[in-house]
Amino acid sequence: MNINISEEILKIFYTSHNLLAFSGGIDSSALFFILQDYGVFFDIAIVDYKKREQSKEEISYAQSLAKKYHKKCYVLESKTIDSDFEMEARNVRYNFFHKLLLQYDYNALIMAHHFDDKLEWFFMQFCRGAGLNTLLGFQAVESRSVQQHHYYLVRPLISYKKQDLLHYNQTHAIHFFYDKSNADCKYLRNFFRHEILAKLQNFSQGMQQSLEFLSNERELLYPKVIICHDYNLLYCKISDCKGNKHIIHIIDTLSKKMDYVMSKNQKKELHALFSNNMAEYAECVMGDRIIIAKNTTYLFVGLQPKWLMKMCLLENLENQNTFITLPKKIQKIFLQNNQQYFHNQEQSDISKQRKVSIYFRNDNNIPPLCSHASSVVLESPNLKSSYFIQLDSLLKCSVIIPKPHRELYRKAKIPPKIRLILFFNSLDIWG
């Protein structure tokens, strides 16, 4: 049979810088050649969890395909995962993909998920007691964001069954690997796959129609609203929301766009928090990362600026740099509340501990010239000030909003935790 990609998805592929999550299995091997047939340009990324001897062959296969078809192949050798393998492997995988998206400016992440995966997800979440938005995960196209970088997570095979992909591979003589661990029912997903869904194969067409009906009814139950986007802040009008359940649905959707998945308990907390419609505002922080708030006019979902700054700084340091550059315009607000951490010269009390240099530059987009071997700044007329700071102290730094801005936000009844996001965004430093 032919495997077709929708026009909507092809439009994304033809106008994006694409990265395919590859494993060498039935699904991703089929998708590799389907994308080739459609003339889609893409690179591939693969993770070696070092759990099976066969994984070395899978890496070699990925690299040989990339070489033959003139693609980049990114390989990550995972650290040993000792517990909760499925969850930790997913975290490793997506962290790797996100780094590649950021570093090489990919704006479409292509996954080889198929209908069987969608069905497994539905039953797993159904048994855990999930809501409609979670049950109907695995959409064909999802808009996501990671550290200010917006991308599409695309699943072009989501309407096809695994058997369809196997038949495609066999018909086109495509090589692929069987992952023997997929037969091990100690993993929850495999239990559902082999013990439950295997017995329902004769009803797959009916189940597919049921999921489509549920998706259509979700649109009636939770109408779409206009979402405003300001860097790392998403917001909409409260008047567009049809009650508390609709608000939680929107928060859940927007959080996923920022790559954060809320738990069932967190949703319950939000429901209780937002039940008081008479309050001037309500707000909370989820996972020390996502700020959720509302006032009488707007519903807000944003990334904590401190968390975002921390991620950006750690990304720099992971690349073995010993210096970080920041825009000159934030020098005053960055230093005024953190003087105790900064030093104009290397002092003895911090010389024995890991430290970094902070440079404040005039232009957001002009980096300093540096030696990549030593990560030492060599030259830059753009740099005006430099300071030394201990790494642990760097992550403790805070910012105080200037009084004029504080008054402006107070009069507009902006929830306090949202004010810092708005202030950072007003500086236009994210570039």
Automatic annotation (TrEMBL):
Positions of the tRNA(Ile)-lysidine/2-thiocytidine synthase N-terminal domain: 18-195
Domain notes: The N-terminal region contains the highly conserved SGGXDS motif, predicted to be a P-loop motif involved in ATP binding.
UniProt source species: Helicobacter didelphidarum
Alphabetized InterPro entries for the sequence: Rossmann-like_a/b/a_fold (IPR014729), TilS/TtcA_N (IPR011063), tRNA_Ile_lys_synt (IPR012094), tRNA_Ile_lys_synt_N (IPR012795)
Keyword check for Ligase: yes
Function, in words: Ligates lysine onto the cytidine present at position 34 of the AUA codon-specific tRNA(Ile) that contains the anticodon CAU, in an ATP-dependent manner. Cytidine is converted to lysidine, thus changing the amino acid specificity of the tRNA from methionine to isoleucine.
Keyword terms, alphabetized: ATP-binding, Cytoplasm, Ligase, Nucleotide-binding, tRNA processing
Reaction catalyzed: cytidine(34) in tRNA(Ile2) + L-lysine + ATP = lysidine(34) in tRNA(Ile2) + AMP + diphosphate + H(+)
UniProt record similarity statement: Belongs to the tRNA(Ile)-lysidine synthase family.
HAMAP family given in the database record: tRNA_Ile_lys_synt
One of the GO BP terms on file: tRNA modification
Pfam families, A to Z: ATP_bind_3
Highest taxon in the source lineage: Bacteria
Keyword Heme: no
Binding residues annotated for ATP, in chain numbering: 23-28
This enzyme's EC code(s): 6.3.4.19
GO MF term set: ATP binding; tRNA(Ile)-lysidine synthase activity
Origin organism lineage: Bacteria, Pseudomonadati, Campylobacterota, Epsilonproteobacteria, Campylobacterales
GO CC field: cytoplasm
Places the protein is found: Cytoplasm
Protein name in the entry: tRNA(Ile)-lysidine synthase
Top-tier EC class: ligase
Location, primary (coarse class): cytoplasm
